[in-house]
Amino acid sequence: YPRVTFAPSGLVSIHPGTPPMAAQSPHFGADYDLPRADLAFRDGVPFAAAFDDGYYNADDGLAESRHVFLDGNGLSARMRELRHLTIAETGFGTGLNLLAVMAEMNRHPELRLDYISFEGFPLTAEQMEQAHAPFTAVAAEAAALRAALPPRWPGYHLVQLCGGRLTLHLHYGEIGDMLPSLDLRADCWFLDGFAPARNPSMWTAENLSHVGRLTRPGGSLASFTAAGDVRRSLEVAGFAVERVPGYGRKRQMIRGRRSGDRDDQPMPPSRIAVIGGGIACAAAAAGLRRRGAEVLLLEAGTGIGEGASGNRMALQSPRLTVDHNAMSRLSAACLSFAARLSDLSGATMAKGVLALDAPERMAARHHVFRGQAWPVDLLRAAGPEDLPASVDESGSAIVYPFGRVIRPDMLLPCLMGDTQLVSGFEVASIDAGEDGLLIAAKDGRQRQADAVVLASGADLGQMMALSGDLLPLEQSYGQVSHVPVAATPLNHELSNGVSFGGYLTPALDGLRDLGATFTKQQQDVRTGHEHNLGLLPETWQSWMASPSPEAFGSRVRRRASLPDRRPVAGKLAEGIWVLGGLGARGFTLAPLLGETLAAEMLGHAAPMDRAQRAGILPDRYKDR
Fold it and tell me: Which end of the chain has fewer CB atoms < 10 Å from its terminal CB, N or C?
């Protein structure tokens, strides 16, 4: 296929013969990247050139954060009284307000906290390090934050801090676009960011009305500003607002309280059974356990990873679209979380996934991608240095730098932790009883729980039938071929993952994994090997076809998916939840979806935007 080139003027030139989709796509030239923060330091204080304003008070930014936001919301007392708290913030900036909260959390070891923040110009770790330097009292917290920072991609990123007790939700992008799409209930707000006169787009009446909508009755807010327009907009949004003394030389600030008494939340389940033994089960268990639930895993087999999640290696890569729609944005968010989790757990074998312009349907899409602006660590055009020198590759490719090749046998135990596992438990029934749900096994054993998560991979359809809920799940067999490295000329040149309608991995124990089949019925092993070889572009087959398929090893397991190829995560019925339909993308999707499901079950913040959430709910099939 011909290539897309970029002229010095920035105009895109599409060579003759470009696939029609690339030439005609209305999304060609779309910009899905974020602006960079133009930062300067004046007397040690970071200033934003775009707003000509400082990120914090020149006298003592940390003391100001404590006075305005922590004291303004009465957080010390609330942290003593509550077991869970949700803080929302406009303007993450240097993260200084979060550092003050993290330091305060050290005094409340039983507290769990969701911290939701919005930022249009995310700082790099290097910029933050310079901004954090004066605040030695929170040096440890600052170092932990910088080490855990997500990539600078537009959208939603989840970060775990304070040993997992604090969940940081970072929303990168224009706040006016994000607030209307969210449904969450904050206990308090930090209205921060640059001064209203210098950053008016953040302090609009519409944005502040959403602050009111997203605050629990009885919830609070605090801000360094006392501007009249801001006060009046907050009053219209349902807050009683008062002016109080500000910090240092600033005479006044505001604090407010949302009308109404704090709403009573239903008691969340405390004993939760998760049925399954693969990545969906492990991810749900990890999210629930981290939020304080008592989790019991019920697995029909002898242990975890016996199904498709037990393959030797797996790829984590996004499923992006040229219009970067809701499901594309969800895929990017899932990759952001899953890749960082794999790195932390030591499960990462290789960083970066090379996506070839194959099969043919992908070539046109990749051409459009190469004509768009994406975060460079999410998607970029491949160069000669990305392809093995011995491969005569006449086409093109793209690279997902944040893609990963991982070892499931290292990630699954990390997620499982010390969760109690009951093996050999083949579920026969799930019935409501006086003390919640009674789960019975075929051998007569019984377990009780307040709620159940059905996360049983390929057996999900059978589990759903027990609860009376059905989805059009499709089951397929997937065979992975284990190709001896010594038999291929490529030996040591391939160090990352490759996708092409199938996938190829680096070597582990002398074998590369080549996959995978998608068949309704299980086929003979040799036919599966031939299929996997046939997935490779012709220019790659010459060196892969040299060994005989008889020399290949293999692993065959079942997987489940839905007709729209989206996962399913959400509530099925009272006390019954589901996470599944992950197809071949379980290790990319499940970690974040498990966190989302756990948060919803326990009444914690799960601020995935409305369109993304609706796209994966089981309800989407009810009217079909």
Answer: C
Cα 126 to Cα 39, 133, 549: the distances in Å are 11, 11, 50
pLDDT (tens digit per residue) in 34-69: 999 999 998 888 999 889 898 898 889 999 999 999
Strands 568-573 and 446-449: unpaired
Tell me the residue ranges of DSSP E strands in 259-303.
271-275, 294-298
Contacts of 347 (CB under 8 A, 6+ apart): 406, 407, 408, 410, 411, 414
d(CA 538, CA 375): 31
pTM: 0.94
CA distance 505 to 498: 7
Measured between alpha carbons, how far is 15 from 317 in angstroms, rounded to an integer?
Answer: 28
CA atoms in the 13 A half-sphere facing the CB of 400: 25
Q: Are 222 and 258 within 8 A, CB to CB?
A: no
HEC profile of 484-509: EHHHCCCCCCCCCEEECCCEEEEEEC
CA gap 566, 583 in Å, rounded: 8
Q: Distances in Å between the alpha carbon of 131 and those of 46, 138, 243, 280, 318?
A: 6, 12, 29, 39, 33
Q: Hey, is 391 helix, strand or coil?
A: coil
Q: Tell me which residue of 287, 335, 407, 410 sits closest to 588, measured CA to CA.
A: 335
Counting runs of H as helices and runs of E as strands, what totals does the chain give?
A: 18, 31
The DSSP line for 204-267 is -HHHHHHHHHTEEEEEEEEES---HHHHHHHHHTTEEEEEEE-STT--EEEEEEESSPPPPPPP
Residue 139 is given by DSSP the state H
pLDDT of residue 293: 96
The pair of three-digit structure tokens given for residue 489, joined into one six-digit string: 């000329």
- Return the SS3 of 7: coil
pLDDT tens-place string over residues 334-389: 999 999 999 999 999 999 999 999 888 889 999 999 999 999 999 999 988 888 77
Cβ-based burial of 340 (10 A; exposed 0-12, middle 13-18, buried ≥19):
buried
Cα angle: 560, vertex 520, 624; to 5 degrees: 55
Torsion of CA 340, 342, 345, 346, to 10 degrees: -110
Residue 214 CA, distance from chain mean position: 22
pLDDT tens digit sequence for 67-110: 999 999 999 999 999 999 999 999 999 999 999 999 999 999 99
Query: From the first residue on, what is the mean pLDDT of each consecutive set of 10 residues in the chain (624 residues)?
Result: 33 44 79 93 88 87 96 97 96 97 96 97 96 96 98 97 97 96 96 92 97 97 96 97 92 94 80 97 97 96 92 97 97 98 97 91 92 96 81 75 98 96 96 92 96 95 85 93 76 80 92 91 90 85 68 92 95 95 96 98 92 95 69
